[in-house]
Amino acid sequence: MAFTLREVWTAVHGMLFGFGFILFFTASLALLLTLHPQLMTAQGLKRNVVLLKISGIAIAALSWLAVIVGTWIVYPWYRAAPPAGTTDLTAFARSRLLASETLKGWHTFGMEWKEHAGWLVPIIATVALFLVYRYGENLAKDNKMRWTVFVTLCIAFVISGIVGVLGALITKEAAVV
Question: DSSP letters along 81-106, please?
Answer without folding.
Answer: PPPTT----TT-HHHHHHH-TTTHHI
